[in-house]
Design brief:
It is a single chain. With about 425 residues, the chain is an alpha+beta fold. It has two domains: about 1-45 and about 280-415, no CATH class; about 55-270, no CATH class. The chain has 13 helices and 15 strands. The chain is elongated, with a radius of gyration of 31 Å.
Length: about 425
Amino acid sequence: MIIFKLAVKSLAMRRVVTSLTIISIALSTALLMVVERVRVSAHDSFTGAISQTDLIIGARGGALPLLLNAVFHIGTPAANMKFATFEQIKADPKTAWAVPITMGDSHRGYRVVATTGDFFAHFRTRRDHILEFASGNFSEQTFTAVVGSSVARRLNYKLGDKLALSHGIGEVSFHNHDDHPFRVGGILQATGSPVDRSIFVPLSGIEAIHTGWHDGAPPRRDHAVPSDLLAAEKFVIDEISAVFVGARSKADILAMQRYWGDYKKEPLTAVIPGVALDELWEGLAYGEEALRLVAVFVVLVGLTGMLVSVYNSLNERRREMAILRSLGATPRVIFGLLVTEAGILVGLGAALGVVLTRVLLVGIQPMVANQFGFYLAVDGFSSVEIIYFCATLISGLLLGAIPAWRAYRQSLSDGLVIRL
């Protein structure tokens, strides 16, 4: 207890250097914790974004591109599949539910997803969170749209507002469907998933705005069909981008994947989301490890700063150590004093780093959800974070033992000799 009090008073006498050292350790610890939390949250959010979907079926192509495009709206659809095939999938006795989606259009940089009302009944985010409406609802009326929470907030949309879709998925389009605007009929609550940055319309809406198009080119102005006539038509859906499928039994998933992957009437790809995500994480593993290694080196730099601070202070504290020795303090006491000082510096720095981590996570949580479409968890501590915290403390104590060992070996006369 006496050693601890002496260490506290000694650090208080050098409050400027002590404060800077604690802040340096806190910042480096916070960086390490934030990197780990972002990594874990990204894994959980990507997995939870499609948690209740057993299969994603689309045109023949790569499994990862299909998953990333259909769920996370990254990339473009390689090709479309026949709507008649979707009806066969839905009629399969092993299928509990099937939801079609069509993609390819956008609105001011946000993806547009054409689907049916079943999407909002079966799609889940963040493990088992249903899609809830903040206002309004989804309608099968041709020119009605549902907007995600981020879209509504950033574009300031309210129920009844009109919006025009753009052909293609870029922020800049060479053709806007201004002649067929959609009315906002529903606004979704925030989910911390790509749903927040999406706009949902009926399948008939996408068919309507492309009526009269040939080979990807729009009709001439004098041949355009008025919106009021299109809204009254019953459109025949020929093609869709992909299908989300829920199986009646988990034991049927592999059999369904093989069957639809080998479907004779049309070349298809059937993806189990969890398996495809494992492939994604394996591909990103090297990048994750590199980022984690950088964060670890930053922590080591912070701890090295603490070592340099304590080590350089020994020359200034030679007389202090000599006085303690003359009062009866043994070399072990001196060693324990300096190690305790290092422990206090690292402990306060790491603790402040944990607090700073939580503040940073709360601050960037909305930005991460809006910009990257995943939920950044803040509550609780993972086992890896606890290990990082303990490893930081132990490393600080070991580094603090270096100047303590030097002080341990100094004789009483070292502090009484005047050095020029």
